Amino acid sequence: MSPATQTVPTDDLAPVPLRPLSVAQPACRFRLRPGDRPLVAAGDHVVLGEPLLERLRDAAAVERRLPLGLPEPSPGDTVEPDQVAPGGVRRGTRTEGPGRVLYLAPGRRLLVAVGRHSDVFPAPFAGTVESVDRVALVLRADGTGLPGAFAAGAASSGRLVVAVERPDAELPASALDVASEGAILVAGARIDVEAISRARAMGVRGLVVGGVVGRDLKAFVASEARQRAGLHTGLPFGLLVLDGFGKRPIPGVLWRALLAAEGHQVAIVGDPALLVLEPTAPLPAPEPETIRVAAGELAGREGRLLALLGRRRLPAGARQHAALVALAADGPGRPALRVALPLSDLERFG
Amino acid sequence: MTDGPLAFFTLDRGTATTAASLLARVEGRFRLLASLAVPTGMDVESLLGSLVETVRGAAPELLDGADDWREWARLECLTHAPGRIVLAAVTERRLAALETAAANAGWEIAGRISPERTDALDASTLLLQPDLDLVAVAAGDPPAVDERERLSDLGALVAAAIGERDDLLCLLAGGAASLTDLLPAQRVLLGPAPDGRPAAEPSPLGELLEQVAARRLPPGLDGAPSSDGRQGFAHSVVSLAALLERRVEGVDVGRSGGMRVLATADGLRARLVRADGALVPDGAPDDDHHVDDVLRWSPVPGDLSALRDRVRNLRLAPWRDASGDGARLRLAAARAALARLDAAWQLADEADGRPGDKAADVLIASGGAFDVAPPPAVGLALVDTLRRPGGIGLYHDHARLLGPLGTLASERDRRRLLADLLEDALVPLGSAVVAAGLRQGRHAGTLRVSSDGSTSELELVPGAIQLIDLPPGLAATVELETREGVWLGVRARRIALHVVGGLCGLLVDTRDVPLRLPERAERRRELLDAWQRPLWPVIDG
After folding, report:
1. How many whole angstroms separate alpha carbon B230 and alpha carbon A349?
2. In chain B, is it the N or the C terminus that has fewer CB atoms within a 10 Å radius of its CB?
3. Do A102 and B120 lie within an 8 Å CB cutoff?
């Protein structure tokens, strides 16, 4: 058998960069802003949808003089409207509503973050509260996380629906309707801002895509910021990008994992960027011998490594370590192919 | 005692790639036998094993009895992602001076607090960010009149926000030391007040900030405290300057930041480390400004939106897309990073009152940014961005040895090793002569290159790049003769320079200093392509 017709032993795949398929029981962080109030404590176990924290929507700093004789509050202490110490308001008008102490300035000037409107942020997945402080709440999931490249929007949860037929397909805006309400949709290789907006309007709770065009991502982030600034915020909506910018087919093993998890409750979280699966969702094992092209014109194609070629001069570049790979046919105009590629453009899942 | 060869490894563990080298004593001096760079996260032992196997395959006699290679010494350094800092001062003037010190010590500025720009809520929000490493509060020493009154307010704000955070240090600079009692003692660092020195000028506060940044390094592979790769690089440049008795400049561009350092035979002259000196800065995925900075240098045609996404992907996985147009796009990103380093390169005046002397005899490029481009293209990228009139020798630290070698504690050992490894560690890219101010005309001037008994002469072309074959190892004298004079640091009609050869030969550049590029995107791209295309071996399409 010539080197060009046999695949290399799995051990020889070491030079191909390894990408983790999943993270068991990931710890996810939810940021707290100065007025936000946690509703759970470290060690608590929470179920999906249980209130985690109360977010002030229209926080503002107000300053009050703390009368002599009253004990000095600590930074982060919760303040209820009827508990605020009496005194003349020197700055700010929105003094009604709950908040948290920012700090006590010299001259017994008490600075408090307060707001009239707040939203309860529910747990997007079941897990155990690992820590809570003024900076963040860390929740360790009971289930498994599928890492993405990055996420945008808010943490959200819903049942997983695979809305495209192939990992390299795109979900058009016209395919979205109210039947998807409450779901997290797997939307293929790319989604545009029109489809994102329509998904949100239809009550979809989140989207999982291979890639997104930077321009569309910026439009989505700006739209999210406007939503947050509004008095009537919508339901949380998250976008998880699995692979990067532009059109990026969902990697085969991730696609199979998403198909297997369809119908289960999942959550999109941003820190780290993950799709969190519930513990009962099945997770197929990666195929150790499968390699994937992660960059260049053949990005998204998968196949087998045939041979390591050592350093080769590649188009328009210096010499790089390359490998001969056999790519499987995966659709019209994409026949099976044998090609030398830079090792750094390949990846495998483990 | 073993009978094996006297050999050791170097490891430069960056945030995108790890570069490993195998060095051994051959015929009385240390030589670089093999080197390799792979994406970070790959198993280091198999990386080192592959270096040993490579040498055994090519020259087995060099590694006789090398079965115990796992026991060989390793000189290891790390480059880390920039730390995130929030800056606070009661006046904008002090805040600006503090920012100069922090930004040029490699910190990423995560927020600025002053009474003039932030209210209590905004300031608390900045101080309660996750992934923050340091809060720096500065005041004059002693505090100025306008600082005294509001400093205690600022102290209460900072103390309240960081009091409960075990993950955060607080640097009190200058008169802000009066706030010490408000903060947990174990998390307070005291430093000098920012003195407003130019960005690249070493300052006590800048040095302290670099030391604090180095504390964030994770342990080495053996669990011991690790050494900072950028500090190592700077030490090596200083040692080289002393060894060669030349002015040596080094630039390092990687995924997490960039560094520029200038040393003379007397020691360090200037240095800076900047988070925005990274190949593609951290904010690029959200900020078109950074992305478009790269595309301004790009000769790659195509849809703007798709090119922007390729640049963003370069931030996510900088080791990928390194052939074809991807390699040219990566070098465009390197150019943008070098241009940012150049913009920050401000030196104080010399002792005699002249403007700070930025000239160097030798320029060394290092870092993953330059790994996949042909040497002539790297040479031109350096000349395009770090422009100054005169002649300079260009080198590439291709195996990323300077960082690890700079971690050697003994200056003497470092110089000895560098002397041995000079030819192996530094690939000579060639020499560049940047001659500004050449006027258009029938006969702008002539260039005469004399080397090894032979002389060649050619016509100087204003506003152009001319490449003259001058192989590595060959020294030459270059004479420029012009009718109306040319500017090479001094203006003269006839100037002679000594140059050395390299892989791109001698590069004679008569374009403007600084380089002027057309504003219209397509014209600019075509011009960049015309300059760069001859330097790439094969360009598809």
Report:
1. 32
2. N
3. yes
